[in-house]
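Let's study my pick:
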Amino acid sequence: METKKHNILVSLMCMDFLDIKEQLKILEEEMDGYHIDIMDGHFCKNITLSPDFAKAIRPAVKKPMDVHLMTTNPSDWLDPCIEAGVDMISPHAETINTNAYRTMQYIAGAGKKVGITLNPATALSYIEHYLNRIDVMTIMTVDVGFAGQKFIPEMLDKIRQAKALREEKGYHYRILIDGSCNKNTYEMLLEAGADDFIVGGSGLFSLHEDLREACKLCKAQFQEAVSKVEGRESANHA
């Protein structure tokens, strides 16, 4: 993932699968990277993308690919994802805490960025012992498994805590938001301390029937939120 101030990643489970090649061409030009949801039908009651999907599209894209492992046994999926050429692997904290250090060492040893994902009901304290080892903390603002869910406002406090803890301890992780990122939530997420955002149906694909126009609208809506937040911060420091 790029280290600019904010990145917008596209949730590929929300794309039009009848037009993958053309859509990837547009997304590669317009957006910052890709988010690939891998589900096993057990950790959450859905099955979406796979390491084979990541491998198939890798030659067509150069932007970073983030894999979100919504799987009961994430260690089973590490080698296929690494071999697919992804850039970051984010298992769920709820699934790796019996072997978290071994899992993170394996991901990092393969030259990939280490992510960790928290379900909405999982406290930040659950992962406090290895926050110094992660590159990205993904905070779910909806329950796992399905697109189109309503934003859970209680997650704003978790984002604030994650930002405060990073500043207090000098950690380097970026805060990535997964779930209902759109024009209705950008401002509150930015103010809480989010760095990067995953957009899907509500934040991108539903904005316009022409994907390039949808990308432009998405970025314009996001930039409007950034400008408002930065404007208020400047006024408060004046």
